[in-house]
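anyone seen this seq b4? input:
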Amino acid sequence: MINTSFLEKIAAVVIQNYETKLAETTIILPNKRAKLFLIEALKRKTHKTILSPDIISIEDFVQDVASIRSIDSIELLFEFYEVYLSVTEKQHQHSFELFANWAKTLLQDFNEIDRYLLDPNHVLSYLKDIEDIKKWGVEVENKTKLLENYIDFWKLLPLYYDALYNHLLNKAIGYQGLIYREAVNNLNHFSNTVSSRSFIFAGFNALNAAEEKIVQHLLALDQAKIYWDTDQTFLNDPYHDAGLFVRRFKESWKYYKSHPFEWIVDDFSQSKNIQVIGSPKTIGQAKIAGSIIENLITENPAGSLDKVAVVLGEENLLIPVLYSLPASVGALNITMGYSGKNNPSQILIAKLFKMHTNALSRKGDSYVFYYKDVLDVLTHPLVAPYANANHLVKIIKENNYTFISHNRIVELYGHSSNLFDLLFKKWENGSLAVLENISALLLLIKTNFDKDNEEEKIAKSFVYAVFKVINKLINYYTSHNHIDNIDTLHAIYKQIIDVAEVSFEGEPLRGLQIMGVLESRVLDFDTVIITSMNEGKFPAGKSQNSFIPYDVKRELGLPTFKEKDAIYTYHFYHLLQRAKNIYLIYNTENDGLDAGERSRFITQLEVEKQPRHNLTFDIYNPVLPSTAYQPMVIPKSEAVMDRLKEIALAGFSPSALTSYIRNPIDFYFQKILRIREVEEVEENIALNTLGTIIHETLKALYEPFIGRFISEEDITKCFKLLDEEVLKQFKVVYKEGEIKKGRNLLAFEVAKRNVFNFLKVELEAIRNGDAIKIIALEQTYQRELTHPSLPFPVLIKGNVDRIEQRNGKIRIIDYKTGKVEKANVVLKTWNGLTNELKNDKIIQVLAYAFMFEKEAGNMPIEVGIISFKNLKSGFLPFTFKEEKDLDTTVSEQTLDLYLKEIVLLLNEIFDTTIPFEEKIN
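predicted toks r here
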């Protein structure tokens, strides 16, 4: 039978042994979270009203002993920078950003040195000696300035340590290690002042040297008791990492020479169902966790989930797990915070930083924004509904503003609003002004929320979380004004926001518990579901973030990755210790960003399997549909048929017909539903835009010659106007887009080259005796098509690029900026003309011939294409190839055969029994 939980046992001891002096009793636990559970356990153990003992975490207790306030890592970095500037010569001083890169690692090392009560001068001079030995072979004359600075850095470490330590002590603030060292120094004074108090240390595993000293001191004075929660399976196995620390303490502490070691339990070997489940990727694990909980509820609908815990091996699984939980979960408690990184208000501030830092980094006097940054801010959900900037977004998109100056954006916005002014106020007056501006912005956003709306309450708490971070930064910058650089501010902001979590509200003692690994300390559950059981996640794996080498750490007794692994091992086995049903979920993918091989803990459970453990292994794979995608099929309703009649009356363009051949669904979206592509800023000129520019340039150059024959002088004039005309058309089509640099400049040059080459070919033809008369340019023609099999007449309507009379023939030309080969306009059989997409050019040019036929009179007609990527081939005429005969003239018979095929296509479009069916390439 598995024993009662550890906290129940502690509660029993407290009530039994300390009932008369509860007010003078302090219980010290590894974390704050366990306090609530212990109070609840105490409630259950007593039937009368009692004063609760003082229950605190070890860190708060050590702070009380030392009488020093703890400061966070960013404030510590600021304080250290102040110290660094005071002890470092001016010419060797680093900027804050450069300093922060190495200072964070150094502070971690200072912290470890202090927590383990080592002599800092010994350790830091040891590091300097190691570096000296490394560079031993370098001759004095070969020592570069860089190398000397490097050696000097190591020499200065003891000085940095002493200066920082004294600076912080004077202010009665400190980092964890300093507080621990001072607590040890202050131990005698503390124990004398609290001689009447009793201390109970409960649920610990790994203690650092300072904690060991404090606990042993109070044990020796009989002012304290310590209760471990260790299982004999781990304690008695000399190689089991879960018992690594407790074995050391049991053997080395003087106290245990004359006192019993409490408590050693035998819970792990009791009967347990352990199910190991593998699933590909992260989301698969979340879905499995959700389905396990659903099964638990189904099996016992009346039961509660108080004794069920979901322990997340990595925090980014929190949201997928929440989405995977069944609706019937009811009460829920989440002890982890929602990551500050994904907070919507943080995302807005990050976008604001990006917009302004990019503007500041651009050279020149004017403050210039990049359009994407501006649109990101203006379309953010916290801004868009209140900024009234839809017209500004529209102007930016329609006019292709790639870069837009501050003055221009204010001018285009047109009116003043507090929100807009705060968003786009220039960041030129230093970091403090920027922070105050952001703070005012967040307060303004807060006023837009509805007090009674539940969802907006959540949004407000997100805004508040960022507001707190900004205010913290304002405090830092007010007292440390020598770090005034927007890039540095951005870097610091990103670091703080990573740890600025938004807490969830819930019932801490009721319902399903969702937590991280560290939050699970001291707590016991009947059913445990652990996710991310992969190497690198659980356990976390090696990370050598220290200046102190591994072998030096070993020699000095500092913790290495071996000890960190042992801590993780203890947490894992403690979760399993009293649980009856255990689900271990891991990612089966071995490679990729979010993967790693199966955790060694699973292998260990398998290899060291206890006789009463029922261990099963499963692999869950998602069900894959037999078809990846089902093509869309849209039946033709009455409304669709009415719209088709409208199109037939207004005119079917050749491109509408070819779009139906390409994909009927595209035709349905574009022509029936009239869905247009969203207007976007074209940062780089798109191919269709380039095509429009070339078409319009040729139209403008040739317009003066309509109705007459062209001479050599006319073409020479065109050459002179070429550059100016292309630039003019660029501005008309591309509006405010940037064309003086980058890919757009290349596109501009390509457009000029294409038109220049076209004019060269034209000039060559005239010199060779061609008589060319321009009849029409970029003109719209239309002609009604009637046929007995059509349900109603259909207007064929289209825009023709150029019609000319050349050497006694009518020539209808379609310009293509893409590459077209001769084979694209050669037809061998009329059968199935409209079934093949490769015939789209032929369908298009013959439609032009049909539309112009009556106006051509008796003159023979040629239709074809001029491809700017294939100008050397010149005019590519439509050709019907029958065996060896080639016919380039479009006769009445040709058009009849063509129309027969077009009628078949139109009948298919108008047939109510044939739906619009998507083609998948």
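The chain is about 50% helix and 15% strand. Residues 25 and 198 are 5 Å apart (CA to CA). kinda curious what u guys think
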